[in-house]
Amino acid sequence: MALTVADAPVARTLADAKAAWRQSAAYRSRPKFVEQLVGMVALTVLTTGLPTEWFVVIDGNLYDAVNVGGPLVIVVFTGLIGTLLVFSMKRPAVMFYLLVCELLLLAFSALILFSTMWSVDFATSLRRSVALTLVTMMGIYFVARYSLEQLINRLSIVFFVAMVLNVVWVNALPQYGTAGEDFLGITTNRNTLGQQAVLGCLVMVFAMASRNHRILATIGFFGSAYLVFGTNSMTSLGSFVLLGGLLVVFSTFRARKQLFGAVVVSEIAAGLFGLLLATANLVFLTELLGRDITLTGRTILWLDLLEPISEKPVLGHGWEAFWGGWGSPAHEIWLQNTWFPPTAHNAPLEYLLALGGVGLALWAVMMVRGFWRSIHYLRDRPGLAGLFPIAIFSYAFLYSVTEAGVVRRGIDWMLVVVALVETKRFMDRNRSTLDGSKLAVARRENTRGKLAR
Questions:
Q1: In degrees to the nearest 10, what's the CA dihedral of 72, 75, 80, 81?
Q2: What does the pLDDT read at residue 21?
Q3: Using CA atoms in the order 276, 278, 284, 288, what is the torsion angle rounded to 10 degrees?
Q4: Is the pLDDT of residue 439 over 50?
Q5: What share of the chain has pLDDT > 70, as a percent?
Q6: Comparing 33-42, 63-72, 359-368, which segment has the lowest mean pLDDT?
């Protein structure tokens, strides 16, 4: 459509704005094609692993089940993250600020690294703590270099690829992709696939807000939901349903004064349901879900873990050193629990084993503060992306009840880091603590007053 004379000033203003943007430092330092490509590959490897990990058959060998992966994974992943960190030096001041802005995350990461000094398995703790630190740095990198909407769009592509791979493995390569009637996909167990698929559904919901990714996100959502149901994992199915309900509550009360109360009450209700599911105190609930009274042995496992926790209550056994094979402290647990649990299947217990009371306290305070900031972010940040941090914290909370949590070398921990750092930066930018809404209202009223004059 041709521009009229009246439109000329507007067109001139837009042209000037575009010219000014192209001359800005932010435009010159934006991610170019090579950096974007490396970022996509890094996200994909973090989500799906390398192809060498897609053809693993767990035949009851516990050590293989616990230690899937190898030197090639470490080398490739380190190279990718190192390359991204080099790119991040285009804006070193921003990167440094994001590194130190969330002090509890910094302290928690430092404790994990230093836990190698008192670990019962130095090599395992060193290797896995360094890998986790790289994932943490990766999360900070994406906050520094991309907007939240840009990251969500890239994640939708990554999870779509993961969904397609899992569906192909389940249907075309059942010797690798299934175990009986349970879906495994390219992962090694149904719980891991279920957790990945639930997160994929969550990402696809947010990606639907983008017109360019709507079709892909819709297909990805239904494909990921198919995988969730196919795993026959009640933990994943319960998390899928609860997260959907929580998103409805968050969206409904987003612009209301009752937002804080609604969020807190809904999270407590979801947590209580998860706790009931985990402890199986109600017989009718276990019958409804088709589970035994000990939830596949989890409650017995938790009682057995109290003794090794009491042996090192302050700083723990070292990061991921407890579950290191038959020569590790876990061998006593495996003798008592013949289903060979590879983790504590409960995040607080897992962190008590690895980092003791100090680590558990740091993790708990860090997550509560992040969750509290995400409520302000939900209220003050426009667009569907404003719900993303609180959705990620809710996902992490639900998977901390009957699984070992999300603090691991995985895409879910990277997204928790993104949520922690992004909400902290948002609060700092708006000079907002717990009075963020009052400040926002004051600014709007001030603007209206100037316009009226």
A1: 130
A2: 55
A3: 120
A4: no
A5: 76
A6: 63-72
Cα angle value 158/163/164 (rounded, 5°): 100
Q: Which residues contact 411 (CB under 8 A, 6 or more apart)?
A: 43, 46, 47, 155, 158, 196, 199
Candidates 98, 196, 183; CA nearest to 408 is 196
Per-residue CA distances from 31 to 46, 81, 428 (Å):
20, 15, 24
Q: How many CA atoms lie within 13 A of 365 on its CB side?
A: 13
pLDDT, residue 328, reads 83
Name, in order, each residue with C-beta under 8 angstroms of 48's C-beta and a sequence gap of 6 or more: 54, 161, 162, 165, 186
**189 φψ region: left (φ > 0), alpha (ψ -120 to 50), beta (else):** beta
Residue 1's pLDDT band, with cuts at 50, 70 and 90, is very low
How far is it, in rounded angstroms, from Cα 412 to Cα 242? Answer: 17
Q: Cα-atom radius of gyration of the chain, to the nearest Å?
A: 23
Higher-confidence residue of 19 and 83: namely 83
Q: What is the largest CA-CA distance in the chain?
A: 84
| More confidently predicted of 195 and 72 | 195
Contact at 8 Å (CB) between 12 and 20? no
Cα 58 to Cα 179: distance, rounded to the nearest angstrom: 10
Please state whether 325 falls in left (phi above 0), alpha (psi between -120 and 50) or beta.
left
Torsion of CA 22, 24, 26, 29, to 10 degrees: 70
Residues 399 and 389: their CA atoms lie apart, in Å, by 16
Q: What is the pLDDT of residues 359-399, one digit of tens each?
A: 999 999 999 999 999 999 998 888 889 999 999 999 999 89
Tokens of 73: 């994974």
- Tokens at 272, concatenated: 């209580």
The pLDDT value given to residue 325: 78
Closest CA to 391 of 171, 203, 147: 203
